[in-house]
Amino acid sequence: MKGRLHLSALVPPNVSAGRELALFLAGEVGAILYGVVRFSSHYRRASRELYQWAGNKLILKVGAKMEPFGSLMDGVLVGFALAVVALVGLVVWHYLSYRQGSMSVYLMRRLPRPHLMDLQCWAGPLLGAVVYGLSAGGLTALCHLYYWSHTPAVCLP
Predict the structure, then answer these.
(1) Bridge partners of 60?
(2) Where are the domains of the chain?
(3) What is the CA radius of gyration of the chain?
(4) Is the pTM above the cut of 0.90?
(5) Angle at CA 133, nearest 5°, toward 38 and 125?
(6) What tens-digit pLDDT sequence spans the chain (157 residues)?
(7) Percentage helix, strand, coil, to 5, in the chain?
């Protein structure tokens, strides 16, 4: 269909757009799951320190304060950083894919759109980095919401 941008236009011709999308989504899901598990373990450890046993039930310690949100986010976004580093490697791989077995680099420079090769090498990874950044921001916002809604008000810093 004319006027619509297809995913295959964002990658070099000899690269599978579907495969790259699947790998990108796997990285996205992995980074989110890692972040959720990491934040959960930090939050659970910190919230346990707010309570003490009194007989057979837990009661809130007097004057107990929850750790600041920033300290609970330690390492939560590492998965996204690793995914962005992988995208840098993807740019290199895209450029190398043009040099496999032919003079396609020379041909691409002679086409009416000489910057098409650069566009195809950078567009997908840059779009992926933007999506990873937005997802990291969304995960941070959700973790912050969880922190403020599940921590007793008297324990908030």
Answers:
(1) 51
(2) 15-155
(3) 23
(4) no
(5) 120
(6) 455 667 777 788 778 888 999 999 999 999 999 999 999 999 999 999 999 989 899 899 999 999 999 999 999 999 999 999 999 999 999 888 877 766 566 666 676 777 787 888 899 999 999 999 999 999 999 999 999 999 999 999 8
(7) 65, 5, 30
